[in-house]
Amino acid sequence: MRILITGAAGFLGSHLCDRLLGEGHEVVGMDNFVTGRRENLVHLVKNKNFSFHRHDVTETITIPGKLDAVLHFASPASPNPASPFGYPNLPVETLAAGSLGTFNTLNLARVKDARYLFASTSEVYGDPLEHPQKETYWGHVDPVGLRSMYDEAKRFSEALIMAYYRSKKTDTRIVRIFNTFGPRMRADDGRVVPSFIQQALRDEPLTIFGDGHQTRSFCFVDDLVDGIYRLLLSDEHLPVNIGNPMEISILDFAEMINQFTGNTAGVDFLPDKRYDNDPQRRCPDISRARSLLGWEPKVDLSEGLKRTIEFYKAG
Amino acid sequence: MRILITGAAGFLGSHLCDRLLGEGHEVVGMDNFVTGRRENLVHLVKNKNFSFHRHDVTETITIPGKLDAVLHFASPASPNPASPFGYPNLPVETLAAGSLGTFNTLNLARVKDARYLFASTSEVYGDPLEHPQKETYWGHVDPVGLRSMYDEAKRFSEALIMAYYRSKKTDTRIVRIFNTFGPRMRADDGRVVPSFIQQALRDEPLTIFGDGHQTRSFCFVDDLVDGIYRLLLSDEHLPVNIGNPMEISILDFAEMINQFTGNTAGVDFLPDKRYDNDPQRRCPDISRARSLLGWEPKVDLSEGLKRTIEFYKAG
């Protein structure tokens, strides 16, 4: 297949490029480098099956030649208001990527008669009142809240994609991505995994906001990409959760990182500076991924963490 | 003020034109006539303070001269899947009006340094789990459901407007409009008020789906327009509900219409053909409108109904 990936220079986008190239596909990458980074793609520059277009998906997209699939992964993705790359600091850009960008990529898929896959998110569930989250849960999102630029853009995109699927027969797929970690996460966008690892590698105490009992479920990026690839090859049009249902407290997680890095500085507890509506708990129900795609996570947290730590050590 | 109204040829848009012209403002109307109708504006053609641009708000908008306010009312608005004018039959158009149209109107307001007001809806609350609905309720909407094209477009627009307000200091307002009725509702878009009145005027039994105990709260259009005008003149940037909190069952409502029209054919009960996620009950909490705008509905249901019946008799 010849496959376009928007957001190709991002954390997930770049790993998707690697996997699809590894499967023998031709990949056309696209990014505007607002949050993506050149170094995530530099190892692909000499790959004859890889080409790259610097382009903003909120502008009409023209790609010469055939395309068999369009994967729309372009969006700021960090909720951290303290980072310049967090979507709270890129509100209009985030809303544009998840509306104009979704229109443009859907229209491209129609013109090329290509299948379409959209990177949605567990954020469509907002601050959920049901645990774990099934795909049939409608979510709990404040449309005018301080992180609505991301959540509502993704919800809008899902509605738009279903409209194209239902009324124009576009061959669409929607993956709802839960917390993911691995090499190439921006060290400077304030998400917990790179932040902890960087602190540990500097022999500093890991900063925990609150008492550390809030839980997260983390999926290693290779597992996530495998689920996305299976969805791309499937005929499933309704949203599918992909994520790791194993919950771990932030405190246990910090202690694992200290153990694997040999950091003896421990942890520091700071007052909870919970971002607006930052969920205290989120965990995927992956029954649909299991039954429809035969998918479940394979890499355990220790193994994934060790591989991620190696990446940051080498950087 | 010189005020642009998109969706000016629609039910609400045309009444807004009348009110604003009556207040001495200059009005620029805009519509693409997908669901709006020329006859709603024909009485304004000779008004020297009224001008009209036939234009689709999903395309960039250029208006010569100054503008003091931009009111974005353009969108299909009937949930009826049996009508060609219902948004279930215009899904992509509805999502485009509530995203591209919102971007374009917001950008116009910025260029003109104009205040901005957006016609949002009680549909942002979806099929609500709280009654009555306060503006702080986050809603209950299925992002991939069969009416998500409308609900998610309006939620997206609210998020976008708050992003412009917060990050670009655009002078925005959001009104959440509950069920409204009055002259000029399309007789053919399947909404209950014109459908009942048309049946009554033909001496036919009024068709009730289900047992008639589902409730609605109906606001007469003059009251609604008054609330919108007060919001436009206010400095309130968070959403404000405008609607009539008096609930009435569909059965009682049908009986009122039969009484006022002298229709003796009664009612017909048909099996509930509830549209996907059609709420059984929705009712505004108007505390914010009362305290911030000094607004509450003045026209009682009997009076509003009589005036609406006169309109359809004359047509």
CATH architecture group name of chain A: 3-Layer(aba) Sandwich
Q: Which shape of chain A, going by the Cα principal axes?
A: globular
Number of strands of chain A: 13
Order of helices and strands of chain A: EHEEEHHEHEEHEEEHEEHEHH
Assembly type = homodimer
Overall tally of structural domains of chain A: 1
Q: Which chains make the largest contact?
A: A-B, 36 and 36 residues
What is the CATH topology classification name of chain A?
A: Rossmann fold
What is the class of chain A in the CATH system?
Alpha Beta
Q: What structural class is derived from the secondary structure elements of chain A? A: alpha/beta
The largest pleated sheet of chain A is described as: 7 strands, parallel
The name of the CATH superfamily of chain A reads NAD(P)-binding Rossmann-like Domain
Gyration radius of chain A (Cα, Å) is 19 Å
In terms of DSSP E residues, the strand content of chain A is: 15-25%
Helix content of chain A: 25-40%
How many helical elements of chain A? 9
Cα(first) to Cα(last) distance of chain A is: 33 Å
Strand order of the largest sheet of chain A: 3-2-1-4-5-6-11
User: Which regions of chain A are unreliable across 5 or more consecutive residues at pLDDT < 50?
Assistant: none
Q: Would you tell me the overall average pLDDT of chain A?
A: 95
Question: Can you offer a commentary on this structure?
Answer:
- The structure is a homodimer of 315-residue chains.
- With 315 residues, chain A is an alpha/beta fold.
- Chain A has a single domain (2-185, 218-245, 284-299), classed as NAD(P)-binding Rossmann-like Domain (Rossmann fold, 3-Layer(aba) Sandwich), CATH 3.40.50.720.
- In chain A, 35% of the residues lie in helices and 17% in strands.
- Chain A has nine helices and 13 strands.
- The first copy, chain A, has helices at residues 11-22, 91-97, 100-112, 148-168, 192-201, 221-233, 250-261, 287-293, 301-314, and strands at 2-6, 26-31, 50-54, 69-72, 115-121, 172-177, 180-181, 206-209, 215-217, 219-220, 240-242, 247-249, 267-270.
- In chain A, the strands form four sheets. A seven-stranded parallel beta sheet of chain A has the order 3-2-1-4-5-6-11, sandwiched between helices. Chain A has a two-stranded parallel sheet with strand order 7-10.
- In chain A, helix 4 links the parallel strand 5 and strand 6 (172-177).
- In chain A, helix 2 packs parallel to helix 4 and helix 7 (250-261) packs across helix 9 (301-314).
- The radius of gyration of chain A is 19 Å and the shape is globular.
- The two termini of chain A are 33 Å apart.
- The relative contact order of chain A is 0.14.
- At the A-B interface, helix 2 and helix 4 of A face helix 2 and helix 4 of B.
